[in-house]
């Protein structure tokens, strides 16, 4: 979870993630973790800036051969 997603937006000052969306996200992550667990896998959940968290995970795991990500599309006004 990127803390920057839970503060005001750049243009309007509204929260990017309100309480209802946050609840939905938390429930979705919990459900995904449970589904993966039933299939013999797991889900790593971290809080922090992705650029820091991913770097730290790669260092901890040590044998990472690829990293795949997507960038949030930002609307230009």
TrEMBL record:
<dbReference type="Pfam" id="PF00875">
    <property type="entry name" value="DNA_photolyase"/>
</dbReference>
<feature type="domain" description="Photolyase/cryptochrome alpha/beta">
    <location>
        <begin position="1"/>
        <end position="77"/>
    </location>
</feature>
<keyword id="KW-0157">Chromophore</keyword>
<dbReference type="InterPro" id="IPR006050">
    <property type="entry name" value="DNA_photolyase_N"/>
</dbReference>
<dbReference type="InterPro" id="IPR014729">
    <property type="entry name" value="Rossmann-like_a/b/a_fold"/>
</dbReference>
<dbReference type="GO" id="GO:0003684">
    <property type="term" value="F:damaged DNA binding"/>
</dbReference>
<dbReference type="GO" id="GO:0071949">
    <property type="term" value="F:FAD binding"/>
</dbReference>
<dbReference type="InterPro" id="IPR002081">
    <property type="entry name" value="Cryptochrome/DNA_photolyase_1"/>
</dbReference>
<dbReference type="GO" id="GO:0003904">
    <property type="term" value="F:deoxyribodipyrimidine photo-lyase activity"/>
</dbReference>
<dbReference type="GO" id="GO:0000719">
    <property type="term" value="P:photoreactive repair"/>
</dbReference>
<protein>
    <submittedName>
        <fullName>CRYD protein</fullName>
    </submittedName>
</protein>
<dbReference type="InterPro" id="IPR036155">
    <property type="entry name" value="Crypto/Photolyase_N_sf"/>
</dbReference>
């Amino acid at each position: 979870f990127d803390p920057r997603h839970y503060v005001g937006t750049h243009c309007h000052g509204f929260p990017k993630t309100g309480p209802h969306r946050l609840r939905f996200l938390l429930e979705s992550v919990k459900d995904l973790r449970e589904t993966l667990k039933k299939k013999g896998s797991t889900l790593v959940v971290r809080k922090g800036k992705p650029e820091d968290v991913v770097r730290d995970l790669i260092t901890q795991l040590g044998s990472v051969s690829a990293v795949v990500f997507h960038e949030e599309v930002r609307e230009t006004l």
